[in-house]
């Protein structure tokens, strides 16, 4: 029997506010345990929650970016359950009336485009964190995260493979970081997802019984967890068993999912409107103001980079993966000058190549690059006007990265001007050919691979300063003569 997977993702996106969703407590990561939980977060008697307007603004921005409906009136509810890291005994969330509903994201998998529906995105507070290590068999509770603002983004069950799920998750991650509403740090738990997975015979319309894999916080683990769960359910059914609705945990060390508990239904949480919070009412003028302030979205930027700069799809996708990278690239192209399309491709190669490698080694985001776009433009200008060869440009870039000054200053200090004088290059070539009579004879006898040997010797003799194109052209003419 052929089987089909049915997958939906619930993505918990921590909003990039400085304070919590219903209190003024800080949300900074890495604080000493229990130093960022105030009386409101703990639900102490007599306290009242006050909604953070910045969290609402960020939720509306996401709704507009995914072409969703932004509710003019939504309601906060109490989701009741008992767990040590939930000090109030309930979580403030949204249930029947979420702030955002019926949106979509478009993904591309193996060259095939697909639209994934987004059922809803609702505001809620995070719970605390249970700590099970270094307590000699006991558990500790850190309530710093309690009350941290989350936007839970729930997809339709439109995903049919682990690859589609990862493509959707990456697209959503790109969008929330691009909009500036989430830092996207999966290691710190700012962007994590629950995956609902079921299988059914191909062609069947009715859904199978689903299992929910909780709190997966890397793209690779999401893919592996879903693939394992699909295989587990198929083997279970084909072996005569049945899938039970439950919550499961992915163990990356064993590359398997394990049962945690039976899956709760909505009525298990006894939702009811929170009596301490008024309904959230959003005016049309507020929505239109945010719509006007939205930045160009990633897909539009990608299409423009291909159209206006003549970049290949791969280059355009890489450069628009992050808003900061796209901004750096455009500033670089504008500052470099030169023939538009040639300049655009050269700039793309440097941003994706030497700059990206240096940033990766240093562990820096592009916004903190020691070589800003305007400085790198000064270097690429010297490549375009023939002052520097590609090899010399890399040397100058390394010096710029180390803080030795501008490209022009480094070129002057090190005497790195590219050798373009034809007679000087001819002199170098003649010397190499005179010193290599055997190799010249072999080349002229048909051993064409020796051409690279001659080029290398000339470049070595010039200390890398000779113009490579001129060396190739004049060397070929000499050898043919």
Q: What is the structure about, briefly put?
A:
By secondary structure, this protein is α+β, with helices and mostly antiparallel strands.
Helix proportion range: 40-55%
Number of strands: 16
Q: Give start-end ranges of low-pLDDT stretches.
A: none
Summed over residues and divided by their number, the pLDDT gives a mean of 92
Helix/strand/pairing class, anyone?
A: alpha+beta
Can you put this structure into words, describing what you see?
The chain is 42% helix and 20% strand. It contains 16 helices and 16 strands. It has a nine-stranded mixed beta sheet with strand order 2-6-7-10-1-11-12-13-14. It has a three-stranded antiparallel beta sheet with strand order 5-4-15, with no helix packed on it. Strands 3-16 form a two-stranded antiparallel ribbon. Strand 12, helix 4 (219-238) and strand 13 (246-251) form a beta-alpha-beta unit. Helix 3 (162-179) runs antiparallel to helix 4 and helix 13 (422-435) packs across helix 15 (450-461).
